[in-house]
Amino acid sequence: MTSYASAGVSIEEGDRAVELMKQWVAKATRPEVVGGIGGFAGLFDASALKGYTRPLLATSADGVGTKVAIAQAMDRHDTIGFDLVGMLVDDLVVCGAEPLFLTDYIATGKVVPERIADIVKGIAAACAETGTALLGGETAEHPGLLAPDEYDVAGSTTGVVEADRLLGAELVREGDVVVAMASSGLHSNGYSLVRHVFFDIAGWKLDREVPEFGRTLGEELLTPTRLYTKPCLALADAVEVHAMSHITGGGLAANLERVLPDSVSVRLDRSSWTPAPVFGLVGELGKVAQADLDLALNMGVGMVAIVPADAADAAVALLGEHGVDAWIAGEVAAAGTHGAGGSVTLG
């Protein structure tokens, strides 16, 4: 007799994965959450928004990309959730929004309950750190489409910001300065290039000890994405902030340009920071041009804030108090001063 199990899908293992993850999901909640996991939909009490004059809902969807291949190769799955949450909630923060809840989606070739629970453990821990409720999710078993040890993770998140506190390009003006915030490493972008350089070109293995890193290659590549959520929300509460940019795919210049009006241009001073060794090694081993590195990788900057010049020192100090290394990396000038309107020059 043919059954769902004989086709490669185990309902029982899926149920066991849910039981294993419940303890972690319980740590990632908010008072507005109604009910628990296991229903068809997650519930969030929207009456909490009555305190807003004009609440704007912000939403974001994203995944982790090919960094999951590193987690799978190392058989360590409890950190990739930090990358997912970082990619999601910090896209909301750039407009000044507080993340409210998140849902995740895990697709795998074969449900191994302990592995799924480890993935969710990381997601829940990151949600707890950012004040985001893990409201629900889905685990899908796709035999024949994915290998038994393969999986991918994605998710979506929703947040809220008061309309008159919305950050963005319309607030940026000549004379502002750019405050850069250090990344924890590669974060979750550019891994197709990074894997090609280290594995295909250089022939390195994940267990290779790399003196420049002070640890193995695998440990370096699996470093979780830094979460900027609470430091950036605290920054927006404490000082005048005009815009923020989350440095993800496309690199520093391209992402900063997304929050610039056509009336200004920006020059960033490369000498104001030193990227971690991993960035230099990708360029050296792969003979990757600087322009390509800048396009694919964050080059040591994971988030930036654009603030008035007289607020810059306070911004740097506050971020430091929240454990984020920050510095003044550039200036905003009239269009044409450093390039075309809405452009960023790295010099």
3D architecture notes:
This protein has 11 helices and 14 strands. 33% of the residues lie in helices and 24% in strands. It folds into 2 domains: 135 residues, PurM-like, N-terminal domain (60s Ribosomal Protein L30, Chain: A); 178 residues, Phosphoribosyl-aminoimidazole Synthetase, Chain A, domain 2. The chain has a 6-stranded mixed sheet with strand order 10-12-7-13-11-14, with helices on both faces. With 347 residues, the protein is an alpha+beta fold. The mean pLDDT is 93. α1 packs parallel to α4. Pathway: Purine metabolism; IMP biosynthesis via de novo pathway; 5-amino-1-(5-phospho-D-ribosyl)imidazole from N(2)-formyl-N(1)-(5-phospho-D-ribosyl)glycinamide: step 2/2.
The CATH superfamily of the largest domain is PurM-like C-terminal domain
Overall SS class? alpha+beta
What is the number of strand segments? 14
Q: State the low-pLDDT regions, or none.
A: none
Question: Could you outline the blueprint of secondary structure elements for this entry?
Answer:
Elements: H1 11-25, E1 33-34, E2 43-44, E3 55-63, H2 68-74, H3 80-93, E4 98-108, H4 113-130, E5 133-141, E6 151-162, E7 177-182, H5 191-201, E8 209-210, E9 215-216, H6 217-221, H7 229-238, E10 243-246, H8 251-257, E11 264-268, H9 277-286, H10 290-296, E12 301-307, H11 312-321, E13 326-334, E14 344-346
Parallel strand pairs: 4-5, 11-14
Antiparallel strand pairs: 1-2, 3-6, 4-6, 7-12, 7-13, 8-9, 10-12, 11-13
